[in-house]
Amino acid sequence: MKSDFTKPLKILVVEDSLVDRTLLQELLPKSPLPISEVKSAESLNAAFELLDKNHFDVVLLDLHLPDSKGLDTLVRISEKYPRVSNVVITGKYDSDLGLKAITQGAQEYLIKGSYNIDTLSKSINYAIERKKVECKLQLTEERYRTIFENSAVAITMTDEQERLVSWNKFTEELLGMNGEDLHLRPVKSLYPAEEWEKIRIYGVRQKGMQYHLETKMIKKNSEVIDVDISLSVLKNSEGKTTGSIGVIRDITDRKKAEKKAKKTMEIESQFISTVSHELRTPLGCIKEGVDIVLDGVVGKINNKQKDFLNLAKRNVDRLSDLVDDILDLQKLGAGRTKLDMQENDITRVLVEAYKTMASSAKKKGVDFSLKLEDNLPKTRFDSDKVIQVLTNLLSNAIKFTPEHGQVSVCAQHESEELVIRVSDTGMGIPKKDLPKIFDKFYRVYRPGKQIQGTGLGLAIVKKIVMMHSGRVEVETEVGQGTTFTVFLPLAGKSIPDVPSAETDKVLENNLVNN
Ligand code: ATP
Ligand code: MG
Q1: Which ligand number lies closest to the CA of residue 398?
Q2: What is the CATH class of 9-147?
Q3: What pTM value is reported for the model?
Q4: Domains in the chain: boundaries
Q5: 395 CA to middle of ligand 2, Å?
Q6: pLDDT in tens, 141-187
Q7: N or C: which end of the chain has fewer CB within 10 A?
Q8: Per-residue pLDDT reduced to its tens digit, 206-259
Q9: How far does residue 459's CA lie from ligand 1's centre (Å)?
Q10: Per residue in 209-221, pLDDT tens?
Q11: Domain 342-513 is of which CATH architecture?
């Protein structure tokens, strides 16, 4: 017989009959197993004394001893020494007891008078292996129990009649209930009637699957809480539902915060759109009035008056640009802007943006160039919105590049994306400002330099690009220049209602700090 034991085995024979004890003591040294020591005890108490002082791998245990009778002998020894393997030895006409002993934790049993050196060795070998497996299983179970008990989520288990049979400490905390409240409690009673109805309609149990849902539960003090539940249905080998496991998280605070944020956003957006619309009309009137006076329609004006009116006109234009930007951003943020996704030619769009910005580049004395790759593929995007992205990036590049500097825009086709780069040789962006430049109203503090703007351009760029499922990256070096790169997927899928917190996160990840 092959044995895998690395250590010699120590065996304890617990047997009150001299004949049986002697037989075992004679047989064991002849076994092919690496047995190094065999000791014996005539009673259970004598066995306890030996087990207290020595390590034994296996106990060969007669159940009928002077100081202990029947299965109780096994129970007492295995409770006191749980790591020792027990081979129970029963009388010839008592084989039922052997089987019962197995169900009570013995690893193997032998019938007196019917074993030989071979069967005895096999039984010892088997008992040791079985104990090892049991120990491993116990360890795994202990690990799972630790996770189960110490989880910061409530975990519950129900039986086939939808009653609670097991739960962890956190469940009691979550529901404000104790073990007595929960034991065999119908799960139905933990939900408001209408919520239970919804869970029933999902038919989780019948479909036999995992299910994730947000619902409400009732605490012991009748307080109703919002919860997020992951349910798994348990089935036996015949496919019959035997219960379910629920992992429950309290999301009451999150729900409250969401509600509050939604309300604040609604109020904010209502306020912004009212104020902006109220500003637009009088601004239009001022602009028209100034234009009429400037054109001399209502009388001749002198040069000084003209200068003042031109100054007023420039400021009115700035103000109406600002109002437009705020309205745009508010509409984009509220998901009220739907993209007009069409198959478009990026070359045409780039040329249009280039033409729009060429005069301001010239005015600033900045060299402005457009580089296009041949045969750029047509792709689906909203051309007005992409022009808005480009004019914002180009206006920044021109604005933050001193005279004689260079600004260029180019487009390329790279793997599955359309890549547009706006580069300049301007003042660059300090590293510490990079994570914030796409925030609304954020402007880099540049002492001694008066550069106009409100800090909305990049916020608009970011929203539009994200709505196209694209991304923006920025590479910059203070005093050397900046390159903004826009990646648009060629597939042109659109996600019109991207929540802003999510877009912010994606974008932060996309920032390349140089
Ligand atoms: P607005 O676009 O609303 O008129 P703005 O240009 O200041 O105002 P954004 O376009 O949002 O605002 O840009 C935010 C900040 O990022 C700018 O204030 C600027 O400091 C910095 N920035 C953006 N582009 C560049 C660039 N190409 N070079 C240097 N700094 C830049
Ligand atoms: Mg700008």
Answers
A1: 1
A2: alpha beta
A3: 0.53
A4: 9-147, 152-250, 256-333, 342-513
A5: 6
A6: 889 888 888 888 999 999 999 999 999 999 999 999 999 999 999 99
A7: N
A8: 555 677 889 999 999 999 999 999 988 888 888 888 888 999 999 999 999 999
A9: 10
A10: 677 889 999 999 9
A11: 2-Layer Sandwich (3.30)
First-residue to last-residue Cα distance in the chain = 69
Residue 224 contacts by C-beta under 8 Å, 6 or more apart in sequence?
Answer: 192, 216, 217, 218
474 lines ligand 1 (CB under 6 A): no
Ligand 1 atom closest to Cα of 322? 3
For ligand 1, say whether the CB of 460 is within 6 Å of any of its atoms. no
Does CATH place domain 256-333 in 1.10.287? yes
- Can you tell me which residue has the tokens 């619902």? 215
- Quick one: CA dihedral 350, 356, 358, 364, positive or negative? negative
Instruction: Label residue 128 exposed, middle or buried (CB < 10 Å: 0-12, 13-18, 19+).
Output: buried
Using the mean position of ligand 2's atoms as its centre, give its distance from the Cα of residue 496 in Å: 23
Q: Which of these, 423, 415, 409, lies nearest to 372 by C-alpha position?
A: 409
Distance in Å, CA 28 to ligand 1 centroid: 89
Q: Which ligand is nearest to the CA of 395?
A: 2
Collect the ranges in the chain with pLDDT lower than 50: 492-514
